[in-house]
């Protein structure tokens, strides 16, 4: 489910948000800033610092998202995409995440490693890789999980796991996403 309680559906415009602790200081530790970051992408620019030329970089927009932060979820099987259009997205299903503005898929870049404080990570970009049958390759296929999903480690929002409902029909995507209409305005 999204922030407003409605189901996230295939083909619907969504935004991926991250609520960071960037602005956390001793003075506001009790009431941290609530400005989320929005996953966004745009066309490649001349001065973009990327590992490989030709890939569309990702970045985070702060507080106020633009059209570049809108994504669409599609079924991983190209033969089922039209059939799945409008159906609720289920957790742990294989999906393709496409950028609305450029129609490029979210991809893991196996040939581009980035060093950070945690070690080596692989880069993520918006770039569609096709196999010989013109279907997306495995680097474009993702599975969605939710922090609210029972059994997912690291859920510190709920101290008592017994308080979580254990229903078999709780399979909709419950990540923190904002719903937007096709014209880009936030839905009520």
Can you give a write-up of this model?
It holds the Pfam family CFAP161. One of its GO terms (biological process) is cilium assembly. By secondary structure, the protein is mainly β. It has a domain at 13-104 and 142-179. Helix content is 2%, strand content 28%. It contains one helix and nine strands, in the order E-E-E-E-H-E-E-E-E-E. The longest helix has 4 residues, at 81-84. Residues 155-188 have low confidence and may be disordered.
Gyration radius over CA: 18 Å
Which percent bin holds the helix content? under 10%
Order of helices and strands: EEEEHEEEEE
Largest sheet: 7 strands, antiparallel
Structural class label: mainly beta
Nearest-integer average pLDDT: 75
Percentage of residues in strands: 25-35%
Distance between the termini: 14 Å
Strand runs, count:
9
Q: What is the helix tally?
A: 1
Low-confidence stretches: 155-188
3D shape: globular
GO biological process, one term: cilium assembly
Pfam families: CFAP161 (PF24569)
Layout of strands and helices, then pairs:
Blueprint: E1 13-18, E2 37-41, E3 58-62, E4 71-75, H1 81-84, E5 94-99, E6 106-116, E7 119-126, E8 141-143, E9 177-179
Antiparallel strand pairs: 1-2, 1-4, 1-9, 2-3, 4-5, 5-8, 6-7
Q: Which key features would you list for this structure?
A:
about 190 residues; mainly beta; 7-stranded antiparallel β-sheet; two-stranded antiparallel sheet; 1 helix; 9 strands; about 0% helix; globular; disordered C terminus; CF161
Concise summary:
With 188 residues, the protein is mainly beta.
